[in-house]
Each structure stands twice: as structure tokens, then as C-alpha cells.
Design brief:
Number of helices: 7
Radius of gyration: 22 Å
Largest sheet: 9 strands, mixed
Distance between the termini: 19 Å
Number of strands: 17
Strand content: 25-35%
Structural class: alpha+beta
Shape: elongated
Order of helices and strands: EHHEEEEEEHEEHEHEEEEHEEEH
Helix content: 10-25%
């Protein structure tokens, strides 16, 4: 999801129907404010979260939204689906109306049969920070498999596995054995059904896959399956700046 950035003159022209050539006059007359300050630069870059007014009338006033959801099994990581309940369907059920917003998007999907931490936002830059392979954001999962986890499997996760169909080798991942059939996997990438396919190499089917954390964001243990909560915008942005 890309951030909606634009030059101020283009934004004003679209919003007001004023020809771009006349926008400079509006600015020279000090009739436009951006975040409470008089704007004079027609080429100023603004995004969807800038508070913009013309003659005191609000042209744009959007709030950054950050939401943590404990995704249940059987719910799809999508904004719309004709067959299954989506994560946005869960958010729209809250009576206070604080969660649902049409511009929310999902930060790192979980498949239908996986559960756990899911982040949603309307901040494209924030989600790109978390999902970009270059930033090496660790994602941690608790995995229950059918058979005991072998030492060979642990070493294979650490070494990386080659998948000929895509002609790729996975990056080294950490597999900790918590009990015979329960492991904790930490990886910095998220290829299609990656964890299930890696255990599948050892003919060990995954029975449960539950995401615990994404970077510095940990699933709140007080959130029951299907429940969500708003995250504090300032704290979310601060964490990203500190990590990167």
C-alpha cells in the first residue's frame, strides 16, 4: 500500500476545482494552512495525514490508524471475500465504530488456517517499513506439528532450504524446540506457506501456526481470538524510527 503523496498545488487544484495556475495566488494571499501553519510553497509535498484548510474550511483531516488483531483460524487476511469472514468483517462488528475504516490495509497476511498477531493500518509508509525485506523485521511463530521435531530439521531451518519450483533458497531461520511437537520459528521473510513447506520437507505436517510478534509488536495476551485494539499512533511511529 503506497502513501498518497502529492504536491500541494495539485492537491488544492483537485479538491477545489481551481486551475493550478491560480493556486499560487491562493497561497500568496495566505488563505491555505497545512497543519495549522500558513502554506506558501506550491511544490510542498503533502500526504493523506496533513491537516489542510482553505479559508478555514477543512479540505483534509485524516488520522493515522494502527490496529492489533488476534486473528482466529477460519478468517481470511483480506479486506473482502465472498466465501469467508475477513479481518475487516471482525473489526466492523465493534459497536463503537472506532475500528472500521475503508482505507485500512493488512500488514503481513496470515493464511486461513493460521492465527495470531495481525496488524492493520492506513499508513502505507509504516507497513512498508515492517514488510520490506531490507529492514529484516523478525516475525515469530509458535508451530505445532504432527511428529517430534528432529535436530536435522532445526539445522535445516538454520541453513536455509532450497525450493526448486521458485529457484530460491530461504534465508536462515531459527527453530527452537519448545517440546517434542511444538517449536518457535523466527524468520525475516514471509514466502508463500514458507513454514508449512519447510516442515513439509521433513514430512511433518503443521497442525497449528500462531504468530506471536512482528518486530517490536507482540500480540497482547489479553486479546481473545477475534478481538482487536487500537494502538497509540505516536508509539507505533516511534518504534519504527528507533528500529530503522
Amino acid at each position: 500500500m503506497q502513501s498518497k503523496k502529492s504536491r500541494l498545488d495539485r492537491f488544492l487544484s483537485v479538491k477545489t476545482g481551481t486551475p493550478k495556475g491560480d493556486i499560487r495566488l491562493l497561497l500568496a494571499q495566505k488563505r491555505v494552512q497545512v497543519d495549522g501553519r500558513v502554506a506558501t510553497d506550491a511544490q510542498q509535498i503533502i500526504d493523506q495525514f496533513r491537516h489542510i484548510t482553505l479559508d478555514g474550511d477543512i479540505l483534509q483531516s485524516n488520522t493515522r490508524r494502527y490496529i492489533m488483531l488476534n486473528k482466529p483460524v477460519g478468517v481470511v487476511s483480506a479486506t473482502k471475500d465472498d466465501q469467508h469472514t475477513t479481518v475487516l468483517d471482525l473489526l466492523s462488528e465493534y459497536k463503537n465504530g472506532e475500528f472500521y475504516a475503508p482505507d485500512l490495509h493488512i500488514v503481513g497476511r496470515l493464511d486461513l488456517n493460521s492465527s495470531g498477531l495481525l496488524l492493520l493500518t492506513n499508513d502505507g509508509e509504516w507497513s512498508r517499513y515492517l514488510m520490506s525485506p531490507e529492514n529484516k523485521v523478525a516475525k515469530v511463530y509458535e508451530v505445532t506439528v504432527e511428529k517430534p521435531i528432529s535436530d536435522e530439521c532445526i539445522h535445516a531451518f538454520s541453513d536455509g532450504m532450497y525450493f526448486p519450483f521458485e529457484d530460491i533458497t530461504t534465508k536462515p531461520a531459527t527453530l527452537e524446540r519448545m517440546s517434542d511437537c511444538v517449536g518457535r520459528v523466527t524468520l525475516e521473510e514471509g514466502r508463500y506457506h514458507q513454514i508449512k513447506r519447510m516442515f513439509g520437507r521433513f514430512r511433518n505436517p503443521v497442525l497449528k501456526l500462531h504468530r506471536i510478534s512482528v518486530g517490536a509488536f507482540y500480540l497482547d495476551n489479553e486479546l481473545a481470538a477475534g478481538q482487536a485494539k487500537n494502538l497509540v499512533a505516536v508509539e507505533c511511529i516511534k518504534i519504527i524510527k528507533e528500529e530503522f
